[in-house]
Structures are given as structure tokens and as C-alpha cells.
Amino acid sequence: MARIPQSDLKPVRARRRAGRATMSDVARLAGVSAITVSRLLRDPTSVSGELAGRVRDAIEQLGYVPNLMAGGLAAAKSRIVGVVVPSIRNAFFAASVDALAARFGERGYAVLDSSADYDLQREDTLIEAMLAWNPAALVLTGFAHGPRAAAIVARAGVPVVEMWDIAGRPFDMAVGFDHNAAGRSVARHLLARGRRRVAVIGAMLGRDTRASARCAGVREELERAGRAAVDSIDLPRASNVGDGAVAIAEALAAPGGIDAVAFSNDVLALGAIFECQKRGVRIPDDVAIAGFGDLDFAAHCRPSLTTLRPPREQIGNETARLLLARIDGLSAERRVVDLGCELIAREST
Amino acid sequence: MARIPQSDLKPVRARRRAGRATMSDVARLAGVSAITVSRLLRDPTSVSGELAGRVRDAIEQLGYVPNLMAGGLAAAKSRIVGVVVPSIRNAFFAASVDALAARFGERGYAVLDSSADYDLQREDTLIEAMLAWNPAALVLTGFAHGPRAAAIVARAGVPVVEMWDIAGRPFDMAVGFDHNAAGRSVARHLLARGRRRVAVIGAMLGRDTRASARCAGVREELERAGRAAVDSIDLPRASNVGDGAVAIAEALAAPGGIDAVAFSNDVLALGAIFECQKRGVRIPDDVAIAGFGDLDFAAHCRPSLTTLRPPREQIGNETARLLLARIDGLSAERRVVDLGCELIAREST
DNA sequence: TCTCTAAATGTTAGCGTTGTCATATAAAAA
DNA sequence: TTTTTATATGACAACGCTAACATTTAGAGA
User: Distance (Å, rounded) from C-alpha A202 to C-alpha B342?
Assistant: First the structure.
């Protein structure tokens, strides 16, 4: 006969344990079964008040933190949302991701985000890496994806929102606005202000399809009015103030001159403003300047900057709303939400 | 006698499956055991070339993506790194997190980041939420934490780096620079330029302890030189261009006037530059202006901005390096890494 | 040739939770 | 009172992987 009680026997195989309190520990202390603890945590109404109190005390006393890995494995789904943006350092995406993370955070979801660096190949890899976490939803940026993205996403079978663009064929849902239309509104504004010789300046247009669509929109509307763009410059690096200065210098030297510039980004426009100041070129008298983004400085620089205001936070909020509705089974719609993009006319035009 | 072969029997209890291929599926197809697949994925050198090839083919054929939840549960640790910053929309933290995520990404770690919004209570909650994922490491910002942070972090037993500051008592490791010293260097610079009536302007100094330390550093060094700060302004909102303009207007009205302003942030300084332009106040002739951050525009605005250049990316890189070394068991040191903060003197002073 | 050692591979059990089914208890209906 | 129904709780297996231990195989040395 064994003299050692069963419960004191060492397990056959030594095993690592995180050392943290587990749900069973809580259950034992509260004198209930583990499943009751699990239920209390997921749906407090399903447990009677008396037990709930005891379990909560036990949780408090042990400092119990649920192991979401175990939960995710058991439920075959996790409370993780995967987000892939071109770059989290970009103020636009950072704003959307921040709003999105806040909305998901309120509901107990964690956001795994990663920057694809405008590299479609890399985006494929990142999406695949996210799927390894069995995410409850996926958020991508735009419609330009790597060659394997469609297959990977389809296999994942999770709700997907492609944000920041709506002019394309989404995998599932899309939240954003029409960049081509935004570009056209800038062109119409410049034409209405009497500008006839407009230059279009963008950065990384080969990779940034949205900036590219905005610039194309400007050019199309100009052409429709019989005033084709005088000059088109595509800067090879991500938008930065210095390049904006260099680019406007080049545009000002265009044969026949220019009387307006549409930039794909406020940052470039700011560089242009500084360069004009330096050269004594008057804005908007000599040249009108329009940007994109309505960044913090746009309203305060001299002259203040005419620009497009993208719905940065709304994109995040609406993306979260759509995905949560789908996750909760409240909606099966495959929606495309156009949040629009307002033109803010200021002194620079 | 059962006429249905064992393998075709329905399991006793119906159970959900993600539907995705599992490691066993791969193993079966490759004619090996599951552990061989696991080993190949984690340490390719431990599997012979012949088997490795077969397994890789099987993975390819099935489109197998490992379930990291299951792996994390089995190994009692995950390839997740938790990061808590005050705000991911802040360009400084975004740069560090981006670099950090890149370094960890190369090694197969995913980064869960969340914004605490300068709310210590909220930070506690976020840290606790991260721990539910059994992270391999934790990255926090600064030394000001919520009341429960110390206990939570201690219980987690994972390597921790507190980034962006070194002047404090870290839980484990710290990577950053001395903000007080940075502030003092600005004061010395202004004094060396002959400035005697310096105002100090910051934003949210009550919550942003690093900005607060920089401002304090400026004041301390001024006092040491017998030239106490003429004015100190603490703006109630996060740094933005508009508030910078308002604040310098107030400072310029100080009795006796001022001849320099040290801002806690380039964004505020930019607002001040615009406001001075508007008022015809000459920089640096009438008033010198210094910022912090060396943001993109600092080198290009008119006049270009004297500022401090924090090691944004290096903080991320070094944080990742330290944590990975600890995770890999290469180092048990509890290091505090001072990356310094360079003063960039430009036209505005 | 045989033993010894190292490298390669396999077997088993368990990580901590949740889905499914089972059961006890209380409230409502007959 | 008995039957029915709803509510609260529990037992158990399964999720897909990896740690620990076990075994086989190949190569070195005696």
C-alpha cells in the first residue's frame, strides 16, 4: 500500500509551470470548480451572487491573471486583433491604430500591430505571422497586397477590414475614403481660386498607392478643365520637410512658371512654405499651396495651409465597430464605409 | 465487434477545431512524428537534412501555420513582447517602438503595444493585460508607474526595460538618457549665447515626468548661474503648435521682457516661431528659441531650430538587444544604458 | 568484432483554459 | 403534490503544441 497520499505524489514527469496561480488554484480556494471561475470571468451574470463573491475574493487574494494562451487554445480563437500598417511612425496610421486599439481595448481585445514598410512581400509575411496567433480579426491598410495575401486571408477565415481606402475590391470590408476624389476636390479648389498652372508633387508614389491616387485625382480634374498639370514630381523617399523644399524649388523653375502646387502631404507643403519664405516667394500671391493631412501645424503656420482633413480617428473607430459587430455575430454584412475627406481652405490658397 | 475502424470513430465529444492544418497533419504527411516538425521549426540544425526536406514540403503543401497559442501554452512562455508607452501617436515613442518591433520581429517575436495615455492607473491595467499573454519580456516607459506596477512586474518574473529615462530606480533594466542633464545643456547653451532672461515652457509637466525633468534641468542650471528663469509656463494639454504660439505670446509679455525661451518640445517651439513671424519678433535677435526632439521640421524651418536630439531609434534597438540577450540567457546583468542626448545648435539661438 | 558515445528521432503526458454534456437545485405550472 | 422548466454548477475531454524522458541509429574507439 502506498503510504504517500495520491495528491502528494510527484508527477511522473517533472513539468515546468509558469508559477502563476491558475484557474484551478482560484477554484480550490473559493471552493468551486474551475469552470465556475471561467464563467464568472466571461459572463458574470451566469454565476450566482454568493459564489461570485467568493471567487472574486480568491482571485484578488491570489493575484490571479488568466492565461489567455490557454483560453485562446481551448476556444480556438483569441482576443487578439492583428493590424498591419505601412508604418506606425506615420501620424495618420498611428492615429487610426490608436483609436482602434482603444475601442478594442475596452472590449478586452489586444492589438498586435506591425509595420510593413510599404513592402508587399513583407506584408505577406506579417499577415502570416499574425495568423499564428489565431486573431479574432485582421486589419490591413489599403488594397495593394502581396501575392499570397488573398490566399492567406481566405484560409484564416476571420473578418478583415482594409482601412484608409475604399476604391478597390476588398477582401471583406473597407473603411476609408476615396483618395482620387480627394485629389479632384483639391484641383477644383485651385481652379476656383483662379489658378491655371498647377504642379503636383508627391513622395514614393510607386509604393504609396493612396498618395498616388490623390495626385492622379488632381491631374485628372485639371485635365478635365483643360489645364493639365504643368509639372509632376515624384520624390523617391518618404515625405519629409527637406524634400518639400527641394521639390518646390524645382517646380518654380518650370518653364512658364507655376501659380499653384498640390502636395500629397502636409509635411512636403510645410517644407515648401519654408522654402518660399526663404526665397521671398509670396504665398498665395505668387504661388498657392495645398497639402494633405491637416496635421497639427497646418492651421498655425504662416500662411496657414489649405489641406485635406482625413478622418483619422474615425477610420479606427469605425473599423473597430464593424469588426466587433461581426465578431459578436450582430452583422454579417460586408460593408464598405466611405468616411469622406474634407477640404479645409486656409490662407495658403 | 466494432465494424468501424477505430480511427473513423467520432470522438466522444464533438469539438471545435480551427480547421487549419496542425503539426500532426504535417508530421503524418511527412511520415515523421510531430516533435520532429516542432524541432525543425524551432532549431533546424537538430533535424537531419533528409527529414527536414520532407517536413518542409509537407508544411508547404498544407499551408501549415503554427498555432503559437498552443506553443505558448506548452512552453509556458510566448514569443510576445509587451510594450506600454504613454502614446503611440507621439513621434518619439513611435520611432522607438518601430525600431524595437523590427529587431524583435527579426527574431520571431511579436510586439503587443498599448498606450497608457499618461494615466498611471491605466498603465497598471495595461501591464496586467499584457501579462495574461505570458510575454517573454516587458517594455515600459520611464519610471513613473501605477501603485500596483511593481508588484505586478515582480510577479511576472520576466525581463523588463524601462525606456526613455535613466534617472531613477529601474525594476530591472533601463535604456535612455538623463532628461535633467539634457535640460541643463540647453541652459548652458543659452547662457553661452549671452542670454540672461530665459523663460521655460512645457506641456503637461504634471504627467510627463521626462519633460518636467528637462524643464527642471534648465531652471537649475540657470539658477546656478545666478540667472533664474524669468517665467515658467506649464500648458495643460499635450504639446501642439497652437499652444506654443499662445505660450510665447504670454512669455513675451513678462515684465522686464525675455531674451530666450526653452521649450520642452519642438512642436511648441514651432508654434512660437510662427507666432514670432506674425508679430515681427526676430529670432534669435529679439528672442532665442530652443526645443526638444529634433523633429523633421527643426532643420528646415526659418530660422532653423536649436534643439536636443534624443536617440529615438537607438532606444528601441538597444532595448531589444538587452532583452534578447537576457531571453537567450546570454546575460544576467541588470544594466542601465545611457545613450545621451545631443544638443543641435542652429539658427534659432 | 564489440562496446561506448553522440546524434537523431520517437513516446508520453501535460500546459491552463473552454466546449459539451450531465446533474442538482429552485421556481413555475399542472 | 407531482411534473415541467429554467437556472446554477460540475465533470471531463480536448485544443495543438513542447518538455522530459526513452529509444534507435551511426560513428568512434578499443
Answer: 32
Q: What is the rounded CA–CA span in Å between residue A19 and residue A6?
A: 22
Residue B280's domain spans which residues? 179-309
Q: How many domains does chain A have?
A: 3
- Assess whether B241 and B318 both reside in one domain: no
pLDDT, one tens digit per residue, over A58-98 is 999 998 999 999 999 999 889 999 999 999 999 999 999 99
3-state SS, residue A336: strand
User: Which of A 62-91 lie inside 8 A of B, CB atoms?
Assistant: 63, 65-70, 72-73, 75-78, 87-89, 91
Is residue A11 assigned to a domain? Answer: no
Nearest-angstrom CA–CA distance, B45 and B42: 9
Residues of chain A contacting B102 with CB distance shorter than 8 Å = 115
* Residues A61 and A168 grouped into a single domain: no
Give the C-alpha separation, B146 to B123, whole Å. Answer: 6
pLDDT digits (tens, 9 = 90+) for A303-349: 999 999 999 999 999 999 999 999 988 877 889 999 999 999 999 99
Q: Are B195 and B221 in contact (CB under 8 A)?
A: no
Cα separation, B287 vs A49, in Å, equals: 67
d(CA A173, CA B118): 33
CA angle (B263, A312, A220) in 5-degree steps:
115
